[in-house]
Design a protein that fits this description.
The protein has 200 residues and is mainly alpha-helical. The chain has helices at residues 9-26, 57-68, 76-95, 100-123, 129-148, 151-167, 170-190, 194-199, and strands at 48-50, 53-55.
Amino acid sequence: MGNERPRYWFPLALLGFAQLVVVASSVGTGPPGGWFAYAPNHGPGLYQGLYGVEMSRATATAIDLSFSGFGRNDGWLFAVLAVYLGTVLFYAIRAKTTPWWKVALIAVGGMVAIPLADLVGFWEFEIDGDARSAILLTLGLVALAWLDRSVLVLVVAAAFVLCAVVLARGQLALVLSSLVALAGAFAALLSRPKAAAEET
């Protein structure tokens, strides 16, 4: 165990690749001109059908705005949940001593708490969807830095929020913050094992 490299390389790599998957899956999938299954308008005075339910242009626009108000690049929140769950399972497997019920409790608790925190950010603070996801991930990185007592992860968290919230928006923010996370993962993998570092 003493010769193992830092465990935090895995969540950092998982975060980077998960966000790149979000970018790849959202390329060329812009809004089709309406929400969900209703067809775009073809002229004034026409009605749009939602599985046989007629709705006016005003009603359809209102629904479209109410859902687009979440303001999130498709899949970013899914990346947050996937990274959290993958990190919990990875740490539990590495620990080998944590009871399965405790792992399940931590996993389910986080999977419930993350969407709730996201809703609070939307309803109470009116934070943009991409920014909410970036903030949630940054808080997760800070918690990871505290758990592993890692200055490197803390630096990654600062650079991550800088790229994802301050410097860029949308897909560019995803790409830049992904590169930050992957750079942190490579730095962790290239670092010397703890036992070797202590011997020198």
